[in-house]
Design brief:
Elements lengths: L11 E9 L2 E9 L2 E7 L3 E3 L2 H11 L2 E2 L1 H6 L6 E2 L11 E8 L6 H4 L3 H14 L11 E5 L10 E6 L15 E8 L7 E3 L10 E3 L6 H17 L11 E4 L7 H11 L1 E2 L29 E3 L14 H22 L5 E6 L1
Parallel strand pairs: 4-15, 5-6
Antiparallel strand pairs: 1-2, 2-3, 3-16, 7-10, 7-13, 7-14, 8-9, 9-10, 11-12
Helix pairs in contact: 5-6
Keywords: FAD, Flavoprotein, Oxidoreductase
EC number: 1.1.99.1
Protein name: Choline dehydrogenase
Length: about 350
């Protein structure tokens, strides 16, 4: 953060990209109620993620003409793939009540318990406030014939009916399982020209037969794991989706009631050379000059595991390309800012 060529602005919202014909010259943004235009001496890099990158492009008039016209935005550049191809893992949060064990449910469900947790962290920077939510992870297969794992587990010493709800009043764990190769594909598009309004995110989870089959197999596999001899002293008792759900149809319905995003949206500005690709192999937006996208939105297909490390790799590769181009061309990397009064 102390680099002389880096300045980070917090609480700043991008309004639109700035254009000179097909050349992207900068960005317009709001910061503490003041509107600014920032002009790039070389290129603009868009790295707002799988949700906000397509949102920023559409607000700037880049995307599907029919989507933009619906919201009164003038089309500056047609790109059919913007906001399409949205993919994410569906997190199936199975819950098992346990005995003879402490979990976060009972440790943090009282003022005294919360005070003890806070005091331990305040004195030693250790304890529950210092740990990640998931204490155990595992990769496995929904089908033994697969060459590599397609299922990932995250096990947490806590439970709720759904994310954001209060912890259950009894000791329990969440055995969260997700399909690493979902076939279901969704969309993410603006709902208006107002930058404050959140986009319309449609993930279309469980919209393919294979995704439904893998979801049902995942729950059955989690149940089998919880019958292991090593876990018998804790007497696991299934709470969600519930032991009464046995058929694939019932399990898929139950999964739909308890599952949620695992916050890995990708693919909405995919890389490629076909008509639906938004960026090319050099991260540049097809048909525009001076604009690259560098984030998870460029993934044509979601990776078989957490997306953080692949995004770091994407950034490293893009940085290498940009650095070589800048050194070769001798182009200025300065940014010029003007203020709207």
């Amino acid at each position: 953060m102390k680099r002389p060529n880096l300045r980070v602005l917090t609480h700043a919202e991008t309004e639109t990209l700035l254009f000179d014909g097909k050349q992207v010259t900068g960005v317009r943004y709001l910061h503490k109620g003041v509107r600014y235009d920032a002009y790039a001496g070389s290129e603009v890099l868009l790295a707002a993620g799988g949700i906000n990158t397509p949102n920023n492009l559409e607000l700037s008039g880049v995307g599907r003409g029919d989507v933009l016209s619906e919201h009164g935005i003038v089309l500056h550049h047609e790109s059919q793939g913007v906001g399409e191809n949205l993919q994410d893992y569906l997190q199936i949060r199975t819950v098992f009540k346990v005995r003879n064990a402490k979990t976060l449910n009972t440790m943090a469900n009282s003022l005294l318990g919360k005070a003890k947790i806070a005091l331990q962290y305040g004195l030693t920077q250790s304890g529950l406030m210092s740990m990640a939510p998931s204490q155990f992870g595992m990769f496995t297969k929904s089908n033994p014939d697969l060459a590599t794992p397609d299922i990932e587990y995250h096990v947490q010493p806590l439970s709720t009916d759904k994310l954001g709800d209060p912890l259950h009043p009894f000791p329990a764990i969440t055995v969260s399982v997700c399909n690493l190769r979902p076939e279901s594909v969704g969309t993410c598009h603006i709902q208006s020209k107002d930058i404050e309004e959140q986009p319309d995110i449609r993930l279309n989870y469980l919209s393919t037969e294979n995704d439904k089959r893998v979801a049902a197999k995942s729950v059955r596999q989690a149940r089998k794991i919880m019958t292991a001899n090593a876990l018998k002293p804790y007497q696991p008792e299934e709470i969600l989706p519930g032991p009464a759900m046995e058929s694939e149809e019932d399990l898929v319905k139950g999964v739909g009631d308890i599952a949620t995003t695992i916050f890995h949206p990708v693919g909405t500005c995919k890389m490629g050379s076909d008509a639906s690709a938004v960026v090319g192999a050099d991260f540049r937006v097809h048909g525009l000059l001076g604009l690259r996208v560098v984030d998870a939105s460029i993934m044509p297909k979601i990776v078989s595991g957490n997306t953080a490390s692949p995004v770091v790799m994407i950034a490293e590769k893009a940085a290498d390309m940009i650095r070589k181009r800048t050194i070769k061309s001798g182009m200025s990397r300065a940014i010029y800012v003007s203020i709207w009064i």
